[in-house]
Please model this.
Amino acid sequence: MNGRIVFATSNEGKMKEVRMILADLGMEVLSMKEAGISAEIIEDGAAFEENARIKASAIERLCAERALAGEAAFEGTVVLADDSGLEVDFLGGEPGIYSARYMGEDTSYEVKNKAIIDRLSGAEGEARSARFVCAIAAAFPDGEVLTARGTIEGRIGHEAAGRGGFGYDPIFYLPERGLTTAQLSAEEKNEISHRGKALRAMKELLKRKLGDRG
Model:
């Protein structure tokens, strides 16, 4: 499969996951920075899918403008964007779509994770149920936008554990494995993660849309 994909993120941890899963498409996968694109996008949607669509469509329009300006590298570029977050049932689904902005965008995840653990003080077992959600949107030059969703169920741990992953991974505990997602290898995490599931579903949509020639 020829062509290239621009993934609307500057998060290197996320890009590593994306490249691992989409590698067999045979398409070049670039971050916004690598593609030379910079944009401030207001994510004001009411759901993960809506925010992903907003980001993907906005960046696709920028790529189309660059192509029209004569930059051949941007011709036919497919833009992917995701919106993901942690839903904690005990907290009524918080932080949800505000996961990245929870307690302020500049607040470290070490502080955010401790705050969530503290808010669940006294909650045990199923009362600590939570899930990671990831919605991915793909915006195409013809104007079509496709979305895919992936989720993983777990619980909020009583303490942070593990140095892998990023974000809320150290407090997201998987009872069946006895580990947090931050304690999994990159390969293990991609196999079961919300983003991994959403990316694999999106990969199938891309194959059907673009033709599986790779």
